[in-house]
Amino acid sequence: MFDFLEGYDLLGAFWVTVRLTLYSGVGSLVWGTVLAAMRVSPVPLMRGFGTAYVNVVRNIPLTVIIIFTSLGLFQTLGVSLGADDFTAINFRLAVLGLTAYTSAFVCEALRSGINTVPVGQIEASRAIGLSFAQTLRLVVLPQAFRSVVGPLANVLIALTKNTTVSAAIGVAEAAALMREMIENEAQLILISAVFAAGFVCLTLPTGLFLGWVSKKVSVRR
Amino acid sequence: MTPPLYDVPGPRAKRRNALFTLVFLVALAVLAWWVYRSLEEKNQLEWVKWRPFFTDSRAWSTYILPGLRNTALAASLAMVIALPLGALLGISRLSDHRWVRGTAGTVVEFFRAIPVLILMLFANAAFSEFTDISPDTRPLYAVVTGLVLYNASVLAEVVRAGILSLPRGQTDAAKAIGMRKGQTMLHVLLPQSVTAMLPALVSQLVVIVKDTALGGALLGFSELLASVRPMSANYGANTIASFTVVAVIFVLINFALTTFASWLEGRLRRGKKSTGAVVGAEAVEELATPGEHIGPGDAGGSTGGAK
């Protein structure tokens, strides 16, 4: 019944999806944290930059960003991110686009986490003479991170689903393989069921597990 | 609003902030200069490539406006179809009957767990195999179907959260004057929850508008993003200019919707006549995620579905 799977690297395609998710997940966590720090910093220019970045990037479709990395950055401007063959270039461009997009959402999630830290604690840390960087690093961010495990999990799951967009620039991940298989095989329903099941296996356990984690680690107030 | 993490700057802090501003400004300037140089090198800044969008009305009437119309058409169709479907699913998830609750829960969790693109690809192939919709209109059908399947399940959660956010007294009062369950839902809870979930609905519209671009990139649906290729082919490889114009249009539309949603949310929260129940625009992100939800959404104890 499932012999149509022969000749296709199904696991390989989903492995590309997982790798895209992991690389851009880590990237957007770092860049998103930097952006969030900028948005609460005492330097007005940085605050302005953070706000502008988030508002612009959140409102552009991810598809536009991903296709721009290929058509605009690579084909027009020649940015290849240090890779030489097309597979590697497209993969890295996709990671770049996904990171640029997702970090805006990470930033917003973190900022809402920063808001959950009681003002009294922030006042206290200022009163004992901690600088902005120390307040952020020692008092605010550790608590903020614990309270935003849930929202960050949502961002991660959205990212997992969003990796399919990189099929638009020819990254050989799950959606690209599904498109190819639909064209070549006459098993539409089964093929779709297989890919749907694959994504349910990726996203649903992540949601349930991280939901459980967020209940565990969140600071009771 | 974020509480300030720093004191009112004194003379030293002022100097330090000025230094940081300067460093950051230099970094931004270097970046801008690099962008400018690379654009200049590839001749992307020539006025010829940007002129069509400012002086030539045909650039708008042949490429951008038809694309924009298709984007709006697909987005509004998807919203209009997904909303009643979502309401039905959301109310079913609150049902007292285990199997109704379970079925609706499974459907919702399933479609939320799958990328929209997968749903669109499936719909496109299914329409070409099982129906005789002409290949010209098929992309529109596929895009709308994919969007409806996904967004109906997200809107189901929005509706559920909206109903659960209403104060308990509403149901109690309806019971006290002898309304049946169906009557309570139809005449008391649902109308009020519509107001409560308006901000979430508007901000879900942003998600829908953004997702229509998938159809342009992968299904040959001629929406706004899809107009980039013919434009840059026609106006002398002005890829960057075309992308900029399209991105700016998307940002303007979605920024307007986002601002409207948060204005609406603030207004509803402050409103004297409202019950104080609001499903905020921020909640949409969480409601779009498969799995269980924390918070008021679980108050009814109705997390059924695919496990």
UniProtKB/TrEMBL annotation, chain A:
<keyword id="KW-0813">Transport</keyword>
<keyword id="KW-1003">Cell membrane</keyword>
<keyword id="KW-0812">Transmembrane</keyword>
<feature type="transmembrane region" description="Helical">
    <location>
        <begin position="188"/>
        <end position="213"/>
    </location>
</feature>
<dbReference type="GO" id="GO:0006865">
    <property type="term" value="P:amino acid transport"/>
</dbReference>
<dbReference type="Pfam" id="PF00528">
    <property type="entry name" value="BPD_transp_1"/>
</dbReference>
<dbReference type="InterPro" id="IPR010065">
    <property type="entry name" value="AA_ABC_transptr_permease_3TM"/>
</dbReference>
<protein>
    <submittedName>
        <fullName>ABC transporter permease subunit</fullName>
    </submittedName>
</protein>
<feature type="transmembrane region" description="Helical">
    <location>
        <begin position="60"/>
        <end position="83"/>
    </location>
</feature>
<keyword id="KW-1133">Transmembrane helix</keyword>
<keyword id="KW-0029">Amino-acid transport</keyword>
<keyword id="KW-0472">Membrane</keyword>
<dbReference type="GO" id="GO:0043190">
    <property type="term" value="C:ATP-binding cassette (ABC) transporter complex"/>
</dbReference>
<dbReference type="InterPro" id="IPR043429">
    <property type="entry name" value="ArtM/GltK/GlnP/TcyL/YhdX-like"/>
</dbReference>
<feature type="transmembrane region" description="Helical">
    <location>
        <begin position="89"/>
        <end position="107"/>
    </location>
</feature>
<dbReference type="InterPro" id="IPR035906">
    <property type="entry name" value="MetI-like_sf"/>
</dbReference>
<feature type="transmembrane region" description="Helical">
    <location>
        <begin position="20"/>
        <end position="40"/>
    </location>
</feature>
<comment type="similarity">
    <text>Belongs to the binding-protein-dependent transport system permease family. HisMQ subfamily.</text>
</comment>
<dbReference type="InterPro" id="IPR000515">
    <property type="entry name" value="MetI-like"/>
</dbReference>
<dbReference type="GO" id="GO:0022857">
    <property type="term" value="F:transmembrane transporter activity"/>
</dbReference>
<feature type="domain" description="ABC transmembrane type-1">
    <location>
        <begin position="14"/>
        <end position="212"/>
    </location>
</feature>
Automatic annotation (TrEMBL), chain B:
<comment type="similarity">
    <text>Belongs to the binding-protein-dependent transport system permease family.</text>
</comment>
<keyword id="KW-1133">Transmembrane helix</keyword>
<dbReference type="InterPro" id="IPR035906">
    <property type="entry name" value="MetI-like_sf"/>
</dbReference>
<keyword id="KW-0472">Membrane</keyword>
<dbReference type="GO" id="GO:0022857">
    <property type="term" value="F:transmembrane transporter activity"/>
</dbReference>
<dbReference type="Pfam" id="PF00528">
    <property type="entry name" value="BPD_transp_1"/>
</dbReference>
<feature type="transmembrane region" description="Helical">
    <location>
        <begin position="139"/>
        <end position="163"/>
    </location>
</feature>
<feature type="transmembrane region" description="Helical">
    <location>
        <begin position="184"/>
        <end position="209"/>
    </location>
</feature>
<dbReference type="InterPro" id="IPR043429">
    <property type="entry name" value="ArtM/GltK/GlnP/TcyL/YhdX-like"/>
</dbReference>
<dbReference type="GO" id="GO:0043190">
    <property type="term" value="C:ATP-binding cassette (ABC) transporter complex"/>
</dbReference>
<keyword id="KW-0812">Transmembrane</keyword>
<feature type="transmembrane region" description="Helical">
    <location>
        <begin position="72"/>
        <end position="91"/>
    </location>
</feature>
<keyword id="KW-1003">Cell membrane</keyword>
<feature type="domain" description="ABC transmembrane type-1">
    <location>
        <begin position="68"/>
        <end position="261"/>
    </location>
</feature>
<protein>
    <submittedName>
        <fullName>ABC transporter permease subunit</fullName>
    </submittedName>
</protein>
<feature type="transmembrane region" description="Helical">
    <location>
        <begin position="18"/>
        <end position="36"/>
    </location>
</feature>
<keyword id="KW-0813">Transport</keyword>
<feature type="transmembrane region" description="Helical">
    <location>
        <begin position="103"/>
        <end position="127"/>
    </location>
</feature>
<feature type="transmembrane region" description="Helical">
    <location>
        <begin position="240"/>
        <end position="264"/>
    </location>
</feature>
<dbReference type="GO" id="GO:0006865">
    <property type="term" value="P:amino acid transport"/>
</dbReference>
<dbReference type="InterPro" id="IPR000515">
    <property type="entry name" value="MetI-like"/>
</dbReference>
<dbReference type="InterPro" id="IPR010065">
    <property type="entry name" value="AA_ABC_transptr_permease_3TM"/>
</dbReference>
